[in-house]
Design goal:
The chain is of the alpha/beta class. It contains six helices and five strands; from the N terminus they run E-H-E-H-H-E-H-E-H-E-H. The chain has one domain: Flavodoxin domain (Rossmann fold), CATH 3.40.50.
Length: 184
């Protein structure tokens, strides 16, 4: 496990919110386990919506070239472990994460862009809606070849909730430690 390139991704539009905090906690555990860690906020990149042009189906990659999707996607290519955090928005991922996911459609037929990658999902919600949210993300990850090691549900709403709830912090720590332990 020593030296695994581990990317922690926050799919939340709220900088410094509970999803960011949970992903940062997960990265701290990964770093303590000897992983090389990097943090990414998808909202730090200008990622356009999928245009529905279907040009990607013949090109094998997204045809939109005038945004920062490719720059955002590059760390995903390099990572061996992806810790993906997303708030639950109406039973699904946040818009910024869904836009990112949609933009990978050009690789749909290949299905292997995440081959040999391990994934850890951290879902953050006030009280529920985890099922459809988790399914949307895990089906996407698995279609592209990732092995989803764990899915953790964090209960948090207002800014600072995650960091003030030791039981939620412990859930994330335990899930990451156990998931990384399974890689050995």
């Amino acid at each position: 496990m020593l030296g695994l390139r581990t990317l922690g991704v926050s799919g939340s539009p709220r900088q410094g919110g509970n999803t960011d905090d949970a992903v940062m906690e997960a990265l701290a555990v990964a770093h303590q386990a000897g992983c090389r860690v990097e943090f990414q906020r998808l909202t730090d990149y200008r990622i356009k919506h999928c245009a529905g042009c279907r040009g990607c189906m013949s090109a094998g990659r997204c045809g939109i070239r005038d945004d920062e999707f490719e720059a955002a996607f590059e760390p995903w290519r390099q990572a061996e472990v992806i810790i993906l955090g997303s708030p639950v928005y109406w039973l699904s991922p946040s818009g910024v994460l869904k836009d990112f996911m949609d933009r990978t459609h050009g690789w749909y037929r290949d299905g292997g862009i995440f081959r040999h990658k391990k994934a850890i999902l951290i879902s953050v919600a006030t009280e529920g809606g985890f099922g459809p949210h988790d399914e949307c993300i895990t089906v996407w990850l698995k279609h592209y070849g990732a092995e989803v090691l764990s899915v953790t549900h964090v209960l948090a709403c207002d800014r600072g909730d995650f960091n003030s709830r030791p039981e939620e912090i412990e859930k994330v720590r335990r899930a990451v430690a156990e998931s990384l332990g399974a890689i050995r």
